[in-house]
Design goal:
The complex is a heterodimer. Helices cover 87% and strands 0% of the residues of chain A. Chain A is mostly helical. Chain A has one domain. The longest helix of chain A is centred in the first third of the chain and has 35 residues, at 23-57. Chain B has two domains: 1-46, no CATH class; 61-189, no CATH class. The chains are: A mainly alpha, B mainly alpha.
Chain lengths: 159, 193
Amino acid sequence: MVTVITIYSLLGIFLAASLIKSREKTVRAFRIAWKALLKTAPSLIAVLGIVGLTLGILTPETISKIVGAEAGFAATIIAAFVGAITLIPSLVAFPLAGSLLRSGATIMTISAFVTTLVMVGFVTAPMEIKMLGKKFTLLRNGLGFAAALVIALVMGVVL
Amino acid sequence: MKDTLKKYLVPIILVFVFIGLAIWAPETASRTSKVTFDYFKEMILIMPPVFLLMGLIEAWIPKEKIQKWLGSGSGVKGAAIAFALGTLPTGPLYMAFPMTASLIRKGAGIRNMVIFLGSWAALKIPQLMVEIKFLGAAFTSLRFVLTLSALVLIGVIMETLLRLRPDKTWLEKKDEDAPRMRQGKIKMQDPGK
């Protein structure tokens, strides 16, 4: 809700300023926005569906079962994959990670989960590809995944 | 017709998956539809203003400014600006993609955009607070430092790779997306390139 209020107030201010300064440029902004929205619509719908599917199938309970079932390095790899494909709001994700940690998961596993969760966006990939290109998306998410594994390893050793 | 079909291929496949779920796993299907609907509500509220903000950026902010602040030659300062913009308490990551696309069209460097997207997703201030609360300050600060270093590294690697082998299909599409911008770009880029 805070997000929505912030965005709309920002937009209101900028839009007012824009209208005062130049009607023509404001119209152009609307035109650019409309065109971009139309072009992105298919990938937005795809993202919606994929988010629904992954979150509907991979509920927090399922995740803790999957991540908790294995031990050692296998658990870390599984956690990294689960984190990469899910898109959970941080208000849900961090309490979940905390409870997994208390119920016996290793630091390495939890860091893998948390880091891929925020760094790799499988469900938002259709949109990222649409807006930023296939190469950019694959590189960013692929390198992000590799980095997350290294980060998890370091954190497991240090903490 | 074929083009439209291709464009909506993933949504169409998803519709079939949903129908399949509704038949064979009704419980999962109802949960899935509920989540989808929740996110739909969120998106329908957030996306129109995001695209409008993007339109305003495209219409108002001159290319040279973005190039200077966030371009490939902007150095540590550019990276710091990208990081600061990313950590601001804003919305979900998919909001950032259209913004990033317009910043790139305006001349922002790939390294800085990777840092921007990465800190938007992984290093947001409100998110860090929640993380400290549930996973502790040691965990959070170590992850913060490691993630930030990784982002800079990934950014440098990607900028180099994409400079050596640019994403041609995307570049073509990008110009097609913004024919107006292209005219402006040619005019403004002439002296530099």
